[in-house]
Amino acid sequence: QVQLVESGGGSVQAGGSLRLSCAFPGSTPKRGWMGWFRQGSGKEREEVAAIDASDRTTYSDSVKDRFIISKDNAKNILFLQMNSLKPEDSAMYYCGADSRWSYFSSPPAELTYWGQGTQVTVSS
């Protein structure tokens, strides 16, 4: 497993914004999807947003129109801009990538690229 490094998490009040970053060691993968996941206390992992090499994006219904995923290929960084945050967005956020993950195939249980997580806490 290739280790990614997330940053940008923190505590914010409801309605606020945060921008998460995920650094890849070397160039971002040219195949497959990459994206952000979150896992709240006692909850299962949830795919939040994903992007492919052609910049096609997908979002979960819970964050659509509030979160924006993007990447900087020159700097090998994946971003997640989170706006209009809600208390239910509180979770540990992880970034991941895998060539087996496609528009037609869900990400595997263990992704080839995976980060250590960054905590996001939204207070009401």
Please explain how this structure is put together:
This protein has strands spanning 2-7, 10-13, 18-23, 33-39, 46-52, 57-59, 67-72, 77-82, 91-98, 113-115, 118-123. A hairpin with a 4-residue loop joins strand 5 (46-52) and strand 6 (57-59). It has 124 residues and is mainly beta. The chain is built from no helices and eleven strands. Helices cover 0% and strands 50% of the residues. The N and C termini lie far apart (37 Å).
Counting DSSP H or I runs of 4 or more residues, the number of helices is 0
Major sheet description: 11 strands, mixed
What is the overall pLDDT average? Answer: 95
- Give the N-to-C terminal Cα separation: 37 Å
Number of strands: 11
- Please tell me what the overall shape is: globular
Low confidence ranges: none
The whole-angstrom Rg is 13 Å
Helix amount, in percent?
under 10%
Give a short summary of the structure.
The chain is an all-beta fold. It has strands at residues 2-7, 10-13, 18-23, 33-39, 46-52, 57-59, 67-72, 77-82, 91-98, 113-115, 118-123. It is built from no helices and 11 strands.
Keyword list:
mainly beta, 11-stranded mixed beta sheet, 124 residues
SSE map:
Layout: E1 2-7, E2 10-13, E3 18-23, E4 33-39, E5 46-52, E6 57-59, E7 67-72, E8 77-82, E9 91-98, E10 113-115, E11 118-123
Parallel strand pairs: 1-10, 2-11
Antiparallel strand pairs: 1-3, 3-8, 4-5, 4-9, 5-6, 7-8, 9-10, 9-11
